[in-house]
Each structure stands twice: as structure tokens, then as C-alpha cells.
Amino acid sequence: MKTIDYNNYARHYPDSEGYFGKYGGKYLPGDLQEAFLEAEAAYQTISKTEKFISELAKIQKEFQGRPTPLYHCARLSDLLGNRLQIYLKREDLNHTGAHKLNHCMGEGLLAKYMGKKRLIAETGAGQHGVAVATAAAYFGLDCEIHMGEIDIVKQAPNVAKMKILGAKVIPVTFGGKTLKEAVDSAFESYLKNHHDSLYCIGSAVGPHPFPMMVRDFQAVIGREAREQFIERLGRLPDTITACVGGGSNSIGLFFSFLADPVKIVGIEPLGSGPKKGEHAATLTYGRPGILHGFKSIVLQDDSDLAAPVHSIASGLDYPSVGPEHAFLKEVGRVEYDTVNDQAALEAFFFLSRTEGIIPALESAHALAYAIRRARNSNHHETILVNLSGRGDKDVDYIIEKYGTEYKIKR
Ligand SMILES: *Cc1c(COP(=O)(O)O)cnc(C)c1O
Hints:
CATH class of the largest domain: Alpha Beta
Number of domains: 2
Structural class: alpha/beta
Bound molecules: pyridoxal-5'-phosphate
Number of strands: 14
């Protein structure tokens, strides 16, 4: 296997065609190629300028509330035996309550510099739609969010937020009427409108340049966390971890640590079990394939179609994963493990009760991995968990389904 120089990693991955090893690229009809090429050219020039970089830094500080804190879970670590010390990177304190705004503000600023007047995006559970609508409002851009009719009914509070923020929510009425069709619908609109619009993807997925662009904008997480951890403890964490849906909060944390002697673990949702349709653990159970215009690992049924997926965390149920994760797994730099619905639920309540922080169910997956490690640890070590978002959005669902008296085992 080719050895990778992680000190110069960013220069070679992705390559000029958008590949991380054999994953990534741009699989699109000819007329749509052009729109993505324009976005790539703009990104490669505009986003590297002093002016863009300093304006984005100012936005992160004054609008988003960055840097987000690094927090030591002293009570939780103590209750788990005090060998593994758990630290959180508090992306839940980022404006709008999750990491997604990190790349949406970057993409919005790029759209402004490109002279575009509209942001176009798809959304599933609505979290990405709210982040894009927020960015559009900030930059004074029009905003068009494509959303499956079924999701519109299920995610009424997020639909209301998008509308309050001034976005136009476009119901997608064909096929399964959920995320997959919403992507098709948003691509179609981008094709028609790319002269005055920029597409704004929801994770480190999609055709080149989006996996790279989203990674670069999300990398602020790991950059800050690495510095904060060293400043606080005088050394690096032993392990870092984050949940993996499409892979944006995780690659955002991992990127700055790739060259370090740090164990890196991505956590996939095992849902209610390992059978097809019960989970969304793409890297664990999937195989190479092409979905939504890029090559990666895809959860497929026997006829090579994207398989149905499930997770208690709606932000994690995607049947593919960012191409960079497929690559980092293949070369062995990042390990991928799984956490099921039950363990994520337990972590959700455990953190809420012991630390006063209600985590998003997505983030609870990464935390559940840390809790499992803490219970089995027999020496002193540290773990840094990316708390990608806050759990306010999950409270109604949890109360309805599980009540508030959840019993935690020790
Ligand atoms: C959307 C979301 C995720 C999953 O997306 P990634 O691209 O894998 O990071 C994780 N956590 C929260 C809070 C989310 O809203």
C-alpha cells in the first residue's frame, strides 16, 4: 500500500479531478458538469484570498460565536471510573445549534463573492435547510430549499423556521418524496439557475468540489479543538471521535489530526440491528458504488440500488458517505465503529443528567462510543468527542417515544 505523507495531505487529497484514491469525482450529465466546474474554479481562487479568509473569520467570531468551547466532562468521566477522561468540542454552541452552519456560511460567502443572488439546497430532516436559510438571510440572498412532501409533514418546526428566515420551501412530490428525490429536484433547479445561483450541499458528499469545500470549511472544528486541547493539557488527546452521517462534522474534526499520533474513530449508526434496512452503517456494511454524482461506499440492495436506511438520529440516515471517509478507511488511517439506537439513547440521557447538556441524537452516537470505551478502559487516557449539535430538536420525539424516566445502567 502507498504510504501517505499526512503532513502534505491537503495538497494531494483530493487530486485535481476530485478523487481521494478511487473515491470521489464528479458523475454528472454534461450540462450539470459545467455548473460544478464553475463552483470549483470560484472556490479555488476566491476562497484562498486574504479578503475572503478574513471576512469568514469575522463572521465565525461575531455571528456564529466561534471559537466554540472545549469542555471536560468531569462528572461523567468520574461516574464511569475516572480512567478515560471525556472532553467535548461544543459545536452545539455554534449559532443555530450545530456544526452545519460552518460550511453554509462559507458557501454563502462564496456565493456573494461570485455575484450570485440565490442559494439552492435540498434537505431531509430540515437541519441543513435551516442552516442554509440562515446563511441566505445573513448575506441577503434568495433561498430555495427542496424538501420531500413526506419530510415537510414530519419536520413541521424546521419548515416553519426556514420560512421565518425568508426561504422558499419547494415540496418534492415525485418518487418516495424524501431526501433522495429532494436532491434530484435541487440538482434540476441548479441546472436551470446556475448562472445566478449556487448550490449548497448538506454534508461532505456530492460531486467535486463539494466534499473538499465542505471539509475545508468544517476544518475549523479540528483546528480550534487541537489548539484548545494542547493549551489545556499540554499534549494531544489519545483518541478523537465523531458521528458519521454524510461525514461533515467528523472530517471537520479529523482533518487537523491526520498527521498526529492520535487514534481516530468515526461512529456509524447501527440503528435497530445489522440487517439491511435496520441501520445506516455505510462503511461497515456497504460496497463501492455511485450515488448522487460521486463514487463512494454505498449501502445497496441486491439490484445495486441504494438500500433503505434507519437510525434514531435522522441526520445520520444516509445510504452513502463522503468519499474521503471511504478513502481514510481503506488506507487504515481512520477506524470506523458502530453504535446502535439503544446506546445512543442512553448516552443522550446520561450526558443530560450528569453534565446539563442535552446532545443531538446524532452526536449521542459518538458520545456512546466514548462511554463504552470508558467502561472498558483499564488505564488513564483521554478522548475528544465532537458534540456536533444540541438536542432541543429531538426532545419532542424522545418524550413521545420513551418518556423522561429513562433508566441508565452503570
Ligand atoms: C446533520 C447532522 C449530523 C450528520 O451530518 P454529518 O455530515 O455526518 O456531520 C450530525 N450531527 C448533527 C447535530 C447534525 O445536524
